[in-house]
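ZP: hey, is the (2S)-2-hydroxybutanedioic acid complex queued? I don't see it on the tracker
AM: it wasn't, my bad. submitting now with these inputs:
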Amino acid sequence: MSHPITVTITGAGGQIGYALLFRIASGAMFGDTPVRLQLLEIPQGVKAAEGTALELQDSAFPLLAGVEVYDDAARAFDGANVALLVGARPRTAGMERGDLLEANGGIFGPQGKAINDHAADDVRVLVVGNPANTNALIAAAHAPDVPADRFTAMTRLDHNRALAQLSIALDTPVGGIRDVAIWGNHSATQYPDLAHATAAGDPVTGLLENRFEGADGAREWLVETFIPRVANRGAEIIEVRGASSAASAASAAVDHMRDWTAGTQAGWTSAGVVSDGSYGVPEGLVCSFPVESFDGAWHIVQGVERDAFAAARIEASVAELAEEREAVRALGLI
Ligand code: NAD
Ligand code: LMR
C-alpha cells in the first residue's frame, strides 16, 4: 500500500466537514491512496469534530490511516500534504463587510503562517470558507515559503451549478458538457460563461438558440435566468434549506482536489487561482478562471475570447476582488 496522504481540514466539526470527511475517507478525493485526517476546530467545535472522528472510525474505511482532532493550528497542519480551509467566521447581524474581512483575517493569517511553518513541502491548499478568494489571498500572504500557486479558492461549486443548470435547460447529460467557465469572485458578481461550451460536441450557443427560439431568446435566458441563478444559488440554497450548501460544497471540494492531483480529463473546469496577470486580472488576486490541471498544477486556459458583455461582467467581479484586497491591506491583514 502507498504512503498515506495527510489531509488537514479546518472547521471539521461543521456542516461541510460532516459531508466532506466521509467522502475523503472513502477514497473519492485521492483514489486508492490511504489518507490520514487531521481535524482542526476552535475549542467550541472540538466536541463535534470528535464525534465525527468516532463515526469515521465506525465506518471502517480501508483507506483511513488515522484521524486526530486538534484545536492548535501548528499541530493540525504538521506534515499536511493537503489543507482544506473550511472553517470561517460567518457574517452575523450588524456585521459590515470590513468586519467580516477583519474577523476572517484573524483566522486565515495565522493558518497561512502555520501552513508555512509546519505543512509538507508539497502542500496544496483549498480555501472554502467565505469570503473564499480573499481568505486565500490572506493565507498565501502569510506563507512566503510556499509557492503562491499552491493556494486556491473554491469556485468549483459555481462551476458545477452552471453545468447542472445548463443540463436541465438543454435536457442533456451533465457528463457531455465541456468548457464552461466561472470568472471572478465566489460571490454574486461572478461571471458564469457558456460562450465556448459544448454539449455532446455541439456548440451550446446554437443549442440554446434552438431551445429558446432564436438568438434573442437564448440571450434573454442567459442574462435573465442562467447567470443570476448560478451567481445567487448560494443564497437560494440558504433560503430553501435554511442553512448554506454543505453536501454540494463538499462534493465540489472533492472534485477540485481530485482534479488538481490526478489532472482534468474532459476540458476546462474552474478554480480560484493566484492571478499571473492573465486576461488583465491584477497579479496576486485570487480569481476564478477557466483552468486545466496537468503535471500536478492548475494552468489558466489562455486565449479565451470574451465579447464586450463578458469582458464588462468579468471586470466588475475583478474590481470587487481588488476592493477586497485594498480593504484587507488597509486593515493591515496582508
Ligand atoms: P459551519 O458553521 O457549519 O461550520 C464551520 C465550522 O468552522 C464550525 O464548526 C466552527 O467551529 C469552525 N471554525 C470557525 N473558526 C475556525 C477556526 N479559526 N479554525 C478552525 N475551525 C473554525 O459552516 P459550513 O456550512 O461548514 O461552512 C463553512 C464555510 O464554507 C462558510 O464560510 C461558508 O460560507 C463557506 N462555503 C463556501 C462555499 C464555496 O463554494 N466556496 C460553499 C458553501 C459554503
Ligand atoms: C454558496 O455558494 O453556497 C456559499 O458560498 C453561500 C454562503 O454564503 O455560505
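AM: back. The chain has a mean pLDDT of 97.
ZP: great, adding it to the tracker
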